[in-house]
Design brief:
Chains A, B: Pfam families: Rrf2 (PF02082). Chains A, B: This is Rrf2 family transcriptional regulator. Chains A, B: InterPro entries: TR_Rrf2-type_CS, Tscrpt_reg_Rrf2, WH-like_DNA-bd_sf, WH_DNA-bd_sf. The structure is a homodimer of 158-residue chains. Chain A is mainly alpha-helical and 158 residues long. The first copy, chain A, has a single domain, classed as Winged helix-like DNA-binding domain superfamily/Winged helix DNA-binding domain (Arc Repressor Mutant, subunit A). Helix content of chain A is 56%, strand content 5%. Chain A has a two-stranded antiparallel sheet with strand order 1-2. The first copy, chain A, is elongated, with a radius of gyration of 20 Å. The two termini of chain A are 36 Å apart. Chains A and B meet through α1, α6, α7 and α8 of A and α1, α6, α7 and α8 of B. The structure holds a DNA duplex (39 and 39 nucleotides).
Chain lengths: 158, 158
DNA sequence: GTCGTGCTACTCGGATAGCCCATGTCCGAGTGAGGGTGG
DNA sequence: CCACCCTCACTCGGACATGGGCTATCCGAGTAGCACGAC
């Protein structure tokens, strides 16, 4: 149950985009961390479908944040890459066991499914409580030169 | 990032075993929910390695809880099947970016890794706060006949 | 000088291979129980 | 009748196939900028 690699790429890329106004092409974003450009592009497409990024085609095109970073939670990014399903999927094996099981939805009544959903919600609550803007503030506090460094590096990679 | 199917099997199997004293062979536990016996056996081996179950070979052998159900948390079972790694694995792509990166452990300093770890801990805290005994109490409250039904079904599947 | 037009190069987007882990299965080693035999 | 031993069947445990999804890549559709030429 390892999370997809694309999540880490998406998180850092969104943070970098929050320091930039003009659209940035996939190539520059990938070179920033020495990532495979085509595969990063695939992840960014998912972010576009989720409404987190907007894409512009043609020369001087690229990707840009679709919303201010205060409106992008870590959960938004994780869900965009990993999908909306919860961590634990209840296959209702109870319906194969003894006892009444006519038309019972064990995703609701199974005590284990209930407990697992509670843990899942706690995880999501933490993730939705932290935004890209929050992380950006933390980073700028520890590394005040980060925004300028990022802008300079992107400019030279364009 | 879907959780392994074996987790659901392990949870329900541990609950069933909490109602039984004598060892129960894989075949009976699998038939209970119409699961593939050999593959369920594989999951149970993981629970033995984690110290949650004990196994007895030979005739009249099988699996039994190694500890009282009050001492078995849902986290114990999930970790036994899925492994101890956290959900988000930080590959430290920051080390490829600009800025100083000599001997820095970005799993500690990266703000995203920090936030993801916080969410992971919230998830684990929920799971470790619920034990098999808690779930058993919930089930017995809703279905008082469950223990007897389970014992009867296992007896006829032996 | 200005406007229109065509070209060019750049970027995204989806379609296409490769690889690793979860899934599923099988057979061998070990062992405890039961029956048979001898005292 | 009792104790010992042998055989047997049963169970776990790890080794062996298979498939789906994550990883990685490539090429085509669309588009904005630019240069050139006509007015």
């Amino acid at each position: 149950m390892r999370m997809s690699q694309g999540v880490e790429w998406a998180l850092h890329t969104c943070l970098n985009l929050s320091w930039l106004d003009a659209p940035v092409p996939t190539g520059a974003l990938a070179a920033f961390y020495e990532l495979p450009p085509a595969y990063l592009n695939k992840q960014l497409q998912a972010l576009v479908r989720a409404g987190i990024l907007t894409s512009i085609s043609g020369p001087r095109g690229g990707f840009r944040l679709a919303r201010p970073p205060e409106a992008i939670s870590l959960l938004d990014i994780v869900s965009a890459i990993e999908g909306p399903e919860e961590l634990f999927r209840c296959d209702q094996i109870l319906s194969k066991g003894p006892g009444e099981h006519a038309g019972v939805d064990y995703r609701q009544s199974c005590a284990f499914a209930h407990a697992m959903r509670g843990a899942d919600l706690a995880w999501r609550r933490e993730l939705s409580g932290k935004t890209v803007a929050d992380v950006r503030s933390d980073v700028e506090r520890g590394h005040p030169g980060a925004p300028a460094d990022t802008r300079a590096r992107i400019a030279e990679l364009r």
